[in-house]
Amino acid sequence: MDQLSSLFDPDQAALGISGGSYVDCLGAFLTTLVSRGVLTGEQRQSLEGALMNRESLGGTGLGRGVAVPHAYLDALPRTMLLVARLERPVQHPSPDGIPVDLLFILCGPTSAQGLHLVTLARLVRLLHDTQLLEHLRQAASPEDLFSALEEVELRRV
Amino acid sequence: MKNREMVICVLNEPDYLHDVLTAMVEAGVPTSTVIESQGMGRILSQDVPIFAGFRHLFAGSKPFNHTIFAVVDGPEVTARLTTLLQDVLSDVEGSAKGVLFSLPVSQFARLSREPT
Q1: Average pLDDT value for residue range A121-145
Q2: CB within 10 Å: which end of chain A, N or C, has fewer?
Q3: 3-class secondary structure, B69
Q4: Could you give the ipTM of this predicted complex?
């Protein structure tokens, strides 16, 4: 199994994303990634649409302030994990109703469907880890977010 | 040729069923069958009067457990699954969280015709 950290680098993370709603925050984060060259403008538009389509099937909130929006997008060259911490939590459907402040976006081409599914399951398991969530909320930089993910993968299986 | 195994997991923590099934996906087991089941001890102590004196042994236990069957591609998948399930259930107190064991599979066939 690929480690989460192999799908993620600090360029793919941002802190302090703000917006009045979940959709606003998602859009603002994707725009940030375009400005960094992580996504092209075209990929951004397609990804936003694919994520919203997936959302219409059922909420991607896990609870405890975490959401894992995910979608296949053949315009992407590889499976990627994009991580955002929001300035303020926003309402988003979740089992416990707690507003969301951590977004883990999993996206990639349909040719990597197996990896996508296994990674999603791995994310869901590891995001139950209370210590990881604390580290993510205390992170001072995208590099700290990356370290928190590396740490949990060393500590857990 | 694959050394397929049949994995049987009896899970005594119904609240963790979704976590367990998610861990199975992570381990590379995308399909399984889940059955709601009951332990022998509970049935005997509830339904057979001679064993009624043992009811205290099951006080507080859940009335049902789940039995999960899956055919996996080899012992390495079973080992990986075991490790993940132990991790998932690590924050559950007590020792009767469930069991997992595997058996060799001598034959395996999908009950559908290959597309022509």
Answers
A1: 95
A2: N
A3: strand
A4: 0.76
